[in-house]
Amino acid sequence: MEWLMISDVVYDSYTGMIDAEVLYKDMKSTFVCNQCERLWIFWNGFQTDPICYSKDN
Fold first, then answer.
1. Alpha-carbon gap, residue 41 to 24, rounded angstroms
2. Span 29-54, pLDDT tens digits
3. String of b and e for 31-42 (b: at least 16 CB within 10 Å)?
4. What is the CA radius of gyration of the chain?
5. How far is CA 43 from CA 16, 17, 18, 19, in A?
6. Is the overall model pTM greater than 0.85, yes or no?
7. Terminal-residue alpha carbon distance, the chain
8. Which region holds residue 52: left if phi is over 0, alpha if psi is between -120 and 50, else beta?
């Protein structure tokens, strides 16, 4: 499953009518593994490897 996320600072910088394409480009793609529940976040787009985050148990 893919989630798109954006920081509150970047989001709050938008005012008035927002171009969906511009907003989409500021979002970070995040993937959630259904089996291990790790998060894979592409902080710098798909040109670089994602960072993997796992839950502390």
1. 15
2. 999 999 998 999 999 999 999 999 99
3. eeeeeeeebeeb
4. 13
5. 26, 26, 22, 21
6. no
7. 22
8. beta
For residue 3 the two structure tokens come to 């989630």
Structural tokens at position 40 = 């894979």
- Give the span between the Cα atoms of 26 and 11, in whole angstroms: 9
Q: Under a CB-based contact definition with an 8 Å cutoff, are residues 28 and 38 in contact?
A: no
Taking CB atoms within 8 Å and a gap of at least 24, the contacts of 5-8 are 5/30, 5/41
Residue with tokens 């994602």: 50
